[in-house]
Design brief:
Shape: globular
Strand content: under 5%
Order of helices and strands: HHHHHHHHHEE
Helix content: 55-70%
Number of domains: 2
Strand order of the largest sheet: 1-2
Number of strands: 2
Radius of gyration: 20 Å
Structural class: mainly alpha
Number of helices: 9
Amino acid sequence: MTPQTGKPERKNRKSERSLAALRDALLKLLKHRTFDDLTVRDIVCEAGIGQATFYRHYATKASLLDAVAENEINALVNLALAMLDGGPGKRGSHVLIDYVDNHRTLWSALLGGGAAAIMRQGFMDRLSREFEDDTSGGAGWLPADLGIVFSVTATIEIIAWWLRQPETVPLAKVAEYLDRLAIAPTAPRNTDLGPGRFNIEIDGTIRIVPRD
C-alpha cells in the first residue's frame, strides 16, 4: 500500500500559515497599540484564526512576542555573518543599521510597541553565551557581563531613538553613533577607535578589529 503523505504535508502547511498569520497580526497591532494593551483575542481576530489555534502554538501572548523577537535577533546575526563572509565588508555597525533600515516597519513595531526589553534581553543572552568561555580579554578594566549590558542597551536605545525621529537621519550617522556610544566605550583601551579606523566583525560574537 502506498504511504499517505498528503495529510501531514497539508497539516504542516496549515500550521505554518497560522504561525505566519499570528506573527503578522502582532506586528500590525503593535504599530498602533502597546503590547500591554493587546489581548490574545485581539491578536487572533486580526489574524483571522481561532483562539484554540493560537493556544496550540503559544501559551501566552508573551510567548508569541518572544518567538518574533528571537527570530529577528537570529536573522540579524545570520545576515551580518553572510554579508561579512563575502569578503572585505562594511563595518558591523553599518551592516546592522542597513538591516534594520530594510526591515524598518518590523523593528519600529517591535521597539515602539513594548518589545524593546525583550529584544535587549535576547541580545544580552546571546552574547553572554558566546562570551561565557572567552578568556581572550577585551576591555580588561571592565567586567565582561557589564560591558555586554552597556553595549546592548546602548544599541537598542540608539536604534529606538533613530526610528522615532520624524526627519530622516543618515544611516552613516546612526552607524557612527553606534560606534562611538555602544562600541568604543567598552573596547580595549589600546584600540584606536577614531572614525573609519576599525571594523566590527560579527561572527556569532562581536569583535573589534583595527583597520590595516
